[in-house]
Automatic annotation (TrEMBL):
Organism: Rhodohalobacter sulfatireducens
Protein name: DUF2892 domain-containing protein
UniProt keyword terms in alphabetical order: Membrane, Transmembrane, Transmembrane helix
Transmembrane regions: 12-30, 36-56
Amino acid sequence: MNIKEQLLSNWYPMRWFMLIVGIVLGYNYLANGAAISGLLSLIILFQAVTNTGCLLGRCSPSVDYQAKTDSDLDDVTFEEIKTH
């Protein structure tokens, strides 16, 4: 996926909400000089614009689910280890 596609596609409601929150925090930084608002604004705006981060539960890694069959268990071998 190229950068233009990433910036212009998949604008779901949570992404719009985070963009608005980032803009509001940025305004708070400019109006009041609150440094924490400026930092949070940059982080949230970056996540909203690039569609990265934990927006809408996307922070969990993708899991490749494969159906396990009984034939997979037939290939298991065990080795007995005896101690004295």
